[in-house]
Amino acid sequence: MPKKKTGQRKKADKMKLRQKEIRSARDKMAVADFPCNANMECDKCKRKQKNRAFCYFCQSIQRLPQCGHCGKIKCMLKTGDCVVKHAGVFSTGMGMVGAICDFCEAWVCHGRKCLQAHACTCPLQDAVCLECDRGVWDHGGRVYKCSFCDGFLCEDDQFEHQASCQVLESENYKCKSCNRLGQYSCLRCKTCYCDDHVKRKGFKYEKNKAIPCPKCGYETSQTKDLSMSTRSHKFGRQHLEYEDGDDDDYSGGGAFSYGGGTGFSYGGGGSASRNYSDDEDEDDEDDESDSDTESRRSKSTFLSVKKKMISTMKNSCLPKLICELNASTNKDALTEGEKSLLRLIRETSISMTAEVTSKYHFAAHMGQLISGIDGNGCHNFYPSCPLAGVQILNMLKKDKVSY
User: Fold this and answer.
1) Do 165 and 231 contact (CB within 8 A), yes or no?
2) Looking at 66-126, which runs of residues are DSSP E strands?
3) What is the DSSP string of 176-219?
4) Per the record, which residues fall in region Disordered (predicted)?
């Protein structure tokens, strides 16, 4: 007969089990719960970030640093394993720290256990984001793990990644090695396996535990319990429109064409024919004809406006004239019209604040507006203008433009 346990013995056994659970729980603890990945608000810039020795934004040291291993901000002298002895004094601030971790960039207190154990057990040793490939030192936010593939994610990409993580690399749910339906899925490799190919020969599997992936060793899950989706390719027409170039219609004669010519055609004879109903074909043809008509109208309107702008620039280039009049050495030889134009420009106060090549260019535009000529499209600034000042004067006299 075994001896009956006393109450004190029962308490001791429960305490041992509890301590064992606490030690094993650290391995299963989430990354966001570790002290080296805790929230920290800078004392100077008031920005929230991961627990760091120095602020990521202003590089300032915090008034009360937190240990990245045990999470304490004050050494109470209860453990007795302090490397720096401070008998009868509670140490805080820089008197409590002993090192900086190279992986998580957090302070480690001067306790012997923290200094010896943290560097080997730091949870952020390989914390490189799956999306942006940034490490702990490259961004200021906290580090998280994907709940599906168990990969590291930064604070900026965690939601975007998890929204697209349950997508298989194949176009169906079939096993990677055979043509049977894959009942097990690996969320890290994004592949499916059947009952036969998910298990490897000569490998001993534990009971009541998830079967590891034969490729990467990550725990697989049953496909029916997940909301997995397959990779899909959406093929369609790509109608490219160019503003510049000829007025040729883009719908025929080249690659990626739908209506005719050469390229990627469906069926035969260069035409993209598919077995749809007659009503759908008629609707598509009507939509295409309407879009082609609108594109032709927009192109013709653009060309007409462009020709009008070019003619305006050639026939009424006043900036060139103003620059030549202002640069002339003999101002007395100018006509009364030219002198009045220069006088009008000098009296224009807004020309002093013009952010152009010179104030005379802006004043010339003012002169164009005063004369009733549209000068918004004139960019023939001196000396790139091909027309001479005499030719401009003759054009203005011929068109009877009063300047």
Assistant:
1) no
2) 74-75, 91-92, 97-100, 107-109
3) SSSSSB--EEETTTTEEE-TTTSS-TT-PPPTTSPPBPTTT-PB
4) 269-298
How far is the C-alpha of 31 from the C-alpha of 129, rounded, in Å? 13
Is 281 in a helix, a strand, or coil?
Answer: helix
Residue 159 to residue 342: CA distance in whole angstroms: 65
**Which residues have C-beta within 8 Å of that of residue 59, sequence separation ≥ 6?**
none
Tell me whether strands 143-145 and 152-154 are parallel, antiparallel or unpaired. Answer: antiparallel
Give CA–CA dist 2/282, Å, rounded: 91
In angstroms, the CA 266 to CA 271 distance is 7
pLDDT digit string, tens, across residues 294-326: 666 666 665 555 455 445 444 555 555 666 666
Pairwise CA distance, residues 229 & 166, whole Å: 6
Neighbours of 118 (CB within 10 A): 24
Cα angle vertex 130, ends 125, 136, to 5°? 40
The C-alpha atoms of residue 93 and residue 352 are separated, in whole angstroms, by 59
Burial of 200 (0-12, 13-18, 19+ CB in 10 A): exposed
Find the mean pLDDT for residues 349-368: 44
**92-108 pLDDT, tens digit each:** 888 888 899 999 899 99
The DSSP secondary-structure symbol of 31 reads G
